[in-house]
């Protein structure tokens, strides 16, 4: 399976909102480090990975998303 990282965040609320948006569009994703982030906040961000065929669709969907709490970042496109 090939997933591509498209976003990082430290905020659990951001994660919940992003999941809701992606679920609504049937975009296949996974958050890496999500549970660790809740145990040790601000140590390591949760990283959003999207199925490679849906990266453009996910980026477009999240393009207007502004994280509610510091440090939401989208890695540069390859």
Automatic annotation (TrEMBL):
- Domain DUF2007, by residue range, is 4-63
| Matches recorded under SUPFAM superfamilies | GlnB-like
Question: Superkingdom, according to UniProt?
Answer: Bacteria
Q: Pfam families in the record, alphabetically?
A: DUF2007 (PF09413)
Its transmembrane ranges are none
Name under which the protein is recorded? DUF2007 domain-containing protein
The upper taxonomy is: Bacteria, Pseudomonadati, Calditrichota, Calditrichia, Calditrichales
């Amino acid at each position: 399976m090939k997933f591509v990282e498209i976003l990082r965040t430290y905020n659990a609320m951001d994660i919940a909102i992003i999941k809701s948006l992606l679920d609504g569009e049937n975009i296949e994703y996974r958050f890496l480090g999500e549970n660790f982030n809740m145990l040790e906040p601000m140590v390591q961000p949760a990283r959003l990975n999207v199925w490679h065929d849906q990266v453009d669709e996910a980026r477009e969907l999240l393009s207007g998303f502004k994280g509610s709490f510091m440090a939401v970042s989208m890695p540069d496109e390859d």
